[in-house]
Amino acid sequence: MNITLDASEFSQLAAFWERAPDLTRAALGDAVERIDAELGATLRRDLPAGAGRSAGLRNSIHHEEAALADTVIGMVYSTMPYAAYVEFGTRPHRVSAEGIQSLADWVQAKFNEDEGTATGIAHAIAWKIRRQGTPANPVWQRTWEGAQPRIRATLEVAMRRIADALAGGGA
């Protein structure tokens, strides 16, 4: 999921970039890093843990920030290739042999079943996925929407800090 925050409503931002680009970049970089860290923490809290409490999606969350000439970019992402399938769900589809084995491993770890029973349950789950797909679990979207007031407040604080520094001759 690619989510972009449009800061164009902060009319002062362009003037800040022009007047004090280093100060603006640093203040917004700090704000974006705080926002990303909070989003990541919320995702780690709300995403499913792996089988037997292994890494799973929960521990695959990372964030990175980059300050460019006239913008600051923040990314919160998962390193797991199936994260999008959890977020958006899937249409009905066949489950590969590796997928069935992964499901069986999950069933064994989650429900403490023996290998034979776990494989049978995995085949039943695969049959259901083949017939119905998987439902969406839009954790990323809920996290983003729920964080909007805190994101706005964090960016407003950064803007005030820049304005205060410029008013005090800090640039």
Q: What is the element layout, followed by pairings?
A:
Layout: H1 12-19, H2 21-46, E1 61-67, E2 72-78, H3 83-88, H4 97-111, H5 115-132, H6 139-167
Antiparallel strand pairs: 1-2
Helix pairs in contact: 1-2, 2-6, 4-5
Architecture overview:
- It is built from 6 helices and 2 strands.
- By secondary structure, the chain is mainly α.
- It has a two-stranded antiparallel sheet.
- β1 (61-67) and β2 (72-78) form a beta hairpin.
- The longest helix is centred in the last third of the chain and has 29 residues, at 139-167.
- 17% of the residues are buried.
- The mean pLDDT is 88.
* Helix content, binned percent: 55-70%
Helix/strand class? mainly alpha
Beta strands, count: 2
Strands side by side in the biggest sheet: 1-2
Gyration radius (Cα, Å) is: 22 Å
Fraction in beta strands:
5-15%
Give the CA-based shape.
Answer: elongated
- Describe the main β-sheet briefly: 2 strands, antiparallel
Q: Provide a count of the helices.
A: 6
From the N-terminal CA to the C-terminal CA, the straight-line distance is 37 Å
List SSEs in N-to-C order: HHEEHHHH
What average pLDDT do the residues reach?
Answer: 88
User: Which residue ranges are poorly predicted, with pLDDT under 50 across at least 5 consecutive positions?
Assistant: none
